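BUG-413 | component: ligand-complex export | severity: low

The export step for aspartic acid jobs runs without errors, but we want the raw record kept on the ticket for reference. Input record follows.
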Amino acid sequence: MPIAVQKFGGTSVANAEKIKRAARRAINAFKQGNQVVMVASARGKQTDQLVADAIELNPNPPKREMDMLLSTGEQQTVSLLAMALDAMGHKAISFTGTQIRMVTDGAHSKARIKSIDADRIHEKLDTGHIVIVAGFQGVDDHDDITTLGRGGSDTSAVALAAALKADVCEIYTDVDGIYTTDPRLYTQAVKIDRISFDEMLEMASLGAGVMHGRAVEFGKKYDINIHVRSSLTDAQGTLITKEVPQMEGILVSGATIQKDLAKIGLNSIDNKPGNAAKVFAHLAQAQVSVNDIIQVEVSPEKANLSFTTAKADLAEAKKAIEEIMQQVNCESIFVREDIAEVSVIGVGMRSHHGVAETMFGALSKAKVNIDSITTSEIRISCIVDIDQAQTALVAVCDAFDLDKPAEKRKNQN
Ligand code: ADP
Ligand code: ASP
Ligand code: MG
């Protein structure tokens, strides 16, 4: 029997009416001949509320305890969903991450899934249950509860779809698909019908909060098509899937903005082999995730090194750099929190030229100063002042016609 995994985000289970709607959707999929696994997030803004409750008592709460607390939001939703299904006359059972052995590493607040025991889920599916799994949470080797990072229920869903060899993985959310950019920031953004794993991975890691980046990584690794769609309608959403040749014809598929960033710079470190390795090994040991790294030689003896990281990791990153700075003979460090990163993404960049020129030209016309630039094969990112981030995003979206469907944009093949 085919297996369908359906994930419901916070707004899609925010109240009793929405929980019933999600339950009915699962029953429909069951009636169509699927075994159904639901994955649910905490209701509405509950995770934010739990974070605020914690901070009120302790501005720097221990991460283990934070995971204990935050995981309760999802546990409430799954039991309520099971009750709703029961009231509709359907067999249903809810599970926490621990109960299905969603085993992760021990990195509290940003744990990575190592394995899932699918047996218990299969056993319940085979006896006609709809199985409901709490998203966002796992358990480590010491039986401590972990969480996968904000927005991590998407990753729970795609990882489960891979472990169960599911036929579909649907992500039900409050938008009807992936747009060229966040429609809340650029209202003219248009919906994308299909996007490649690589493009979505870049968009997610560069700030498109609609999908958790690790979820897309799982999708790519296990070749799981992910269908992102609205929980309010039956309209087709966006398929995140393998790259097809036509995608190369689209110059820029989307743009993102990342505000949750900080930049740390090490001025004038010794320009000799092993120094960058020392710095980044120390950051890795402190469990700091690093985004873009720029190193520039300023003389044969000296170099400047800078990198960006999530604001949440800034305190740990700064501490780690202060510990290591003497070892690399660094003269001074600087920290910038008032920055944002604006990026354009598209697999078409591999085979087209002129993208950088258009992007920098648009920013210049909008009088946005560029602090630094990083690129990959399929993206260009500029760090700008946070106050200019919105202006920069609009300028870039207008320049690449991201308010029009792909076939109507300029410079397309
Ligand atoms: P859920 O609670 O269902 O997981 P999220 O809030 O995590 O929902 O993600 C949905 C939101 O992501 C949308 O409301 C939208 O504002 C935002 N978003 C950011 N970038 C994009 C994009 N490129 N396309 C669609 N939505 C986006
Ligand atoms: N409830 C968690 C969050 O708000 C996980 C999720 O929604 O995916 O981040
Ligand atoms: Mg989300």
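Assignee comment: Attached the raw record above. The chain has eleven helices and 20 strands.
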